[in-house]
Amino acid sequence: MVAEPVIDVCHLRTAFGDQIIHQDVSFSVNHGEIHAIIGASGAGKTTILRSILMLNRPTAGQIKVFGVDVWHCDAPTAQRIRCSWGMMFQGGALFSSLTVLQNIMFPMDEFTQLTRAQQRELALLKIHLVGLPLTAADKYPSELSGGMRKRAAAARAIALDPQLLFFDEPTSGLDPKGSNSFSQLIVELRDTLGLTVVMVTHDVKLLATVTDKIVFLGEGRVLAHCPLAELRQQSHSEIQQYFKQ
Predict the structure, then answer these.
(1) Distance of CA 218 to the CA centre of its chain
(2) Using one digit for the tens of pLDDT, what is the confidence trace for 11-20?
């Protein structure tokens, strides 16, 4: 028996007024895979991510997460699904007035019945899992380097023990060493926690080191959905141009 995809996007159409972003987008993501969504500027990569996250309602089509149509389910079901994923935004989006520990405890306080002591213990575990020193717990985001802020944001993204993890440009702003280190972290989190990962990225080296499959968006549809080696062999001019940049 074939397992149901963790994410199933089917004939998605997105338009803002007269501007059509997606005409007919379909792809699926299986458990334990790392997928990247790429394409030229304006292809609607982040819009797809926002639609999956129930932040941007598509014009037509269907998005299923864990087998549930996220745009046609009741509020309690939608909230249950939201609590089963984590999201790391491009800039980290950490609360500047909270310490790293408090940032990680925030979703626990909002969505669980854990005591403060339990929250603190779990938050310290998340800090350890993302490779931050425990001394970072009491620091504010402004006191951290760019790479450490991204790791703190990753720790918050896994605060509720999600099954699914989303990243928006996870290595942007990092130097090559920091980018390589964070790429390794993504794979380690997938392997250690049994996660399924979906990311939007422009980092070709990240594509080569961590992805199982890549969704290439263009012309309002999926031009290719395959591993990087196969993608590079595609004859479509937009794909060829992307890798010549």
Answers:
(1) 20
(2) 999 999 889 9
